[in-house]
Each structure stands twice: as C-alpha cells, then as structure tokens.
Write a structure and sequence with these properties.
The complex is a heterodimer. By secondary structure, chain A is mainly beta. Helix content of chain A is 0%, strand content 58%. Chain A contains no helices and twelve strands. In chain A, strands 2, 5, 6, 10, 11 and 12 form a six-stranded mixed beta sheet that branches. A four-stranded antiparallel beta sheet of chain A has the order 3-9-8-7, with no helix packed on it. In chain A, a hairpin with a 2-residue loop joins strand 10 and strand 11. Chain A is globular, with a radius of gyration of 14 Å. By secondary structure, chain B is mostly beta strands. Chain B is 0% helix and 47% strand. In chain B, the strands form two sheets. In chain B, strands 2, 4, 5, 6, 9, 10 and 11 form a seven-stranded mixed beta sheet that branches. Chain B has a four-stranded antiparallel beta sheet with strand order 1-3-8-7, with no helix packed on it. Chain B is globular, with a radius of gyration of 14 Å. The chains are: A mainly beta, B mainly beta.
Amino acid sequence: AQKVTQAQTEISVVEKEDVTLDCVYETRDTTYYLFWYKQPPSGELVFLIRRNSFDEQNEISGRYSWNFQKSTSSFNFTITASQVVDSAVYFCALSGLNTGGFKTIFGAGTRLFVKA
Amino acid sequence: EAGVAQSPRYKIIEKRQSVAFWCNPISGHATLYWYQQILGQGPKLLIQFQNNGVVDDSQLPKDRFSAERLKGVDSTLKIQPAKLEDSAVYLCASSLVGAVSSNQPQHFGDGTRLSIL
C-alpha cells in the first residue's frame, strides 16, 4: 500500500525565516515519483517539483530546495527567506507504477502562514 | 498555453439532487483525472482516464458517481443522487502521457466547490 504523511498540519513563520515542510512516504514500488504541489487561496494546485526514485540528488530552485532521502523515505521541502506570497497549503504526493499506469496519492497537506 | 478549464466554479444543491461538472484539459494532454478534495484534506483520486479509457476508478463510488470522456478530450463527472458527505471541491487535472518508466506532473483546474444542503 502507498501512503504519504505530512505530520505538520499548520506552520506559522515570520517573513524572512526559513521553514521546512516534512514529507514521509511508504511504498513497495521500486519505481515511483514524488511531487510537491502548492495550493494558494485561489484553490488551483500548482506543480513545484518532481523527483523519481532513482535520483536522490537534492535540488535547489531559487528560494526553494528539496531533500530526498530514500533511507528515511523522506522528501522534505525548504523555503529560504520566506515571503508572504509563500502562504499556501503545500501537498506532497507519491505516484507509484501500478497495473495500467501510475496512481497518485496526496498527503493531507501543510498549511503555511507567513506573517509580514 | 490555456490551462485546465472547469465549470461551474460553485454549485449548491439539496441532497438527493443530481449535479454535473465539466472539465476541458490542456490541449494534447491524454491523461485526465478527477479528484475530490474535502476541506482540510488532500485531493483523493476518483477516476483517471487515458484518452477515453478508464485507467483507475477504484475509489469512485459507482452507485452514485459516474464519469465519461467520450471523445478523449473533455470530461463530465456526475453525482446522482448527492449526499451531504459529497460536499467538497472537485478538481480536474490533466497530464501528458509519459513513457512506462515516467510519470508526468499534473496540471490542475480551479475546481468546482460543491455544497450540499
């Protein structure tokens, strides 16, 4: 069975602080993908990053960085120097190869409040 | 590039009534998904199409929910009859078809917020 756990329900920080959003996953698949999506108040989920199970390289994109560790089944997301516009719900998702194609499951999300 | 289009944006109905949602994916995206997102939770996949074929509908309550994608482009999701617990945001997403060893990111619409009275 596949499972994604985002233990942090809500996080509140002050602008310019760094913040890390945790994601722990469970899967028996050897081929799988991990994603992070952002859901601002408008409601539309926006794709941020995709990582496959064979690539454990960390990635940095501007103020965003991601740390993928298969040994701990974690795919954590760090925002450096947070800004008010980062306020949103962030979802971690896991997509494993099943019969007929990939099936994606989402975590419950972490709501991030960034205060000015 | 135009995004995923959904309508209506909001819908309020009474329980036991029927409702339908429409989705037009990004042009060229063969895979289309319908998700249910209950307040405070992550999206839950209801049904996944590849072109006009169903890839996964294991979490679709088939006694009341139905979906179709007849021409492999736009899709409709129907609930009949609606129950109170169906109150949620219904999200449509689309993606390119990846190779067997690949999985493409999904592009989401704004969703339809359904309230059941």
